[in-house]
Amino acid sequence: MAGEKKEVKIFDSDDDLVEGIAKHTTDLSRKFSIQRGAFTVVLSGGYLIEKLRKLVEPPYVGEVDWAKWHIFWVDERVVKKDDPESNYMLAKNGFLSKVPIPEDQIYAINDSLDAEHAAEDYESRLKELVERGVVEISPQTKFPRFDLMLLGMGHDGHLASLFPHHPLLSEKNRWVTFIKNSPKPPPVRITFTFPVIDASAYIFMVVAGSAEVDAVKKALDNNSSNDLLPVQMVKLENGEFIWFLDKLAALKL
Ligand SMILES: O=C(O)[C@H](O)[C@@H](O)[C@H](O)[C@H](O)COP(=O)(O)O
């Protein structure tokens, strides 16, 4: 079935939200590990990582076949891997160090390159993984199709490092590109482009607390506007976009 399925899940408490993310991620891990012998998971930075805290605890931690996981970043700051600003470091400390995913299935950016070359390098490594059959390819668009993107959204409606009104919003060819003037610091980053995000099988968009309440309202309002938030520009070709919200983030819905 082609097209996009949208769903909004609202949880009463932070613990319920975190439990919901753990449960649904475990279900998808099982599905893809069995179906294709691999589970490709794309992470953002931000507080998303902290919301994975129940996935690394029983019962979920024991139900997941971690050897099948392959980890990617939807965006990364161009800093050294041990820099406190690194999304890799954030994920390593908060999530990856707690589960037995093989080291060579964790695809951090090459932190010895500048932004332009780091983006090119990441794209060519993705191409190799497509050739090896680890990452699927969209039969329609020929962009890589990741099994699950676990993402956060900024209060300005950005996702990945795709910010409002930025020229990168209209990138149609590259898989991975770079930005040197990100309005959210640090300014230099690499990011997946919309065609890659749009090819995903599943996106879980995790938003908690009140900081993004207006962006959540705008994103989920049916009134179409000419001034779309980046998150509203996602158009999954054949996938499910599921919002995981707590009560505070959903307050204005
Ligand atoms: O490198 C980054 O800054 C992130 O990957 C970014 O895309 C993040 O996911 C959103 O900005 C939400 O961030 P918060 O969770 O901090 O609101």
- Main beta-sheet strand count, sense and barrel state: 6 strands, parallel
3D shape: globular
SSE arrangement, N to C: EHEHEEHHEEEEEHEHE
CATH fold-level name: Rossmann fold
The radius of gyration is 17 Å
Discrete helix count: 6
How much strand?
15-25%
Give the class from helix and strand content and strand pairing.
alpha/beta
CATH class: Alpha Beta
Order of adjacent strands in the largest pleated sheet: 1-11-10-7-2-3
Describe the structure.
- This protein starts with a strand and ends in a 7-residue tail after the last strand.
- It is globular.
- The chain has 253 residues and is of the alpha/beta class.
- The protein has one domain (3-246): Rossmann fold (3-Layer(aba) Sandwich), CATH 3.40.50.1360.
- The protein has helices at 14-36, 60-63, 87-94, 115-131, 194-198, 213-220; strands at residues 3-11, 39-43, 69-73, 75-77, 136-137, 144-145, 148-151, 176-179, 189-192, 202-207, 238-246.
- It has six helices and eleven strands.
- The strands form three sheets. Strands 1-11-10-7-2-3 form a six-stranded parallel β-sheet, with helices on one face. The protein has a three-stranded antiparallel β-sheet with strand order 4-9-8.
- Strand 2 (39-43), helix 2 (60-63) and strand 3 (69-73) form a beta-alpha-beta unit.
- 6-phosphogluconic acid is lined by residues 44-48, 75, 77, 87, 152-154, 158, 160-161, 184.
